[in-house]
Design goal:
Nucleotidyltransferase, domain 5, 5-stranded mixed sheet
């Protein structure tokens, strides 16, 4: 069995997968503001999984992973923290730490032909590039921090088009409740800002638009300008791409 841990900005999800990829058990808890409190909460919630025979643990984090050990979180002012050691004290199996958007990209690009760029429009904008079911080597992809002009102002793309930015602009929560032709046209214009640069840089065959905005994919993509030789695709699991990516990643590591 495999354990997936998705550490998000507001919640952390733990999912236990069978060897065939079925979710056997889930636990969800709020992501604490402080690093030490979070680690205590994580350890406490992992205790219930100690009775299972775990082959590998994959931890998805919203930040920069360094040597599969310390993590610089993108949505918390935690600096570098040790995620692995507390988990190693519970499970005697390999433990892998990877960026959450990369893991989601592995799942959403799995078995798609050619090259896939996955983008998640959530608290920020993250992404990954996948080819032949693997992350493209040597790519440091942080699309949300690219700057664009929109409505006369220059801002980072994620401050324009992330789900959190749309919630602030439209005074609504969650962004998936947004409706109306003019609203969808506005969303499409915001999302399209970064797509030509990404297409020019990576030459993808497919662009998957995920995260919360993936849930309303069909509402705004009818207004999204086309990119030459690129297909837009709805995510298979808009809100669970990460944990399923953890499972695939664990299986890949097992075969290495």
């Amino acid at each position: 069995m495999y354990l997936a841990i998705d550490i998000g900005a507001t919640k952390t999800l733990i999912a236990l997968f069978s060897r065939r990829g079925r979710v056997v058990r889930r636990v969800k808890f709020p992501t604490a503001r402080g690093a030490h409190v979070f680690i205590d909460d994580l350890v406490g919630n992992l205790e219930v999984f100690r009775k299972y025979k775990i082959s590998a643990v994959v931890v998805a984090v919203p930040g920069i992973v360094q040597k599969n050990y310390s993590v610089n979180f993108g949505n918390r002012d935690w600096g570098e923290i040790d995620i692995c050691t507390p988990i190693k004290n519970l499970f005697s199996c390999p433990i892998y730490v990877e960026n959450d958007a990369n893991l989601a990209a592995i799942y959403e690009g799995y078995r798609l032909p050619g090259r896939t760029v996955f983008l998640t429009f959530s608290t920020g904008i993250g992404g990954g590039v996948v080819e032949k079911n693997r992350l493209l080597a040597g790519v440091n992809f942080e699309p949300g921090h690219r700057k664009y002009e929109f409505n006369g102002e220059t801002n980072e793309w994620e401050d324009i088009a992330a789900a959190s930015a749309l919630e602030r602009f439209y005074h609504i929560n969650p962004a998936t409740d947004l409706r109306g032709k003019k609203v969808m046209q506005d969303i499409a214009a915001r999302i399209y800002l970064g797509l030509p640069d990404i297409a020019s840089e990576f030459h993808p065959d497919t662009v998957v638009l995920g995260g919360p905005m993936g849930k309303i994919f069909r509402l705004y993509t009818k207004y999204l300008p086309k990119l030459p030789e690129v297909k837009y695709r709805r995510p298979k699991r808009p809100l669970e791409s990460v944990i399923y990516g953890c499972y695939i990643y664990a299986k890949q590591k097992e075969r290495e």
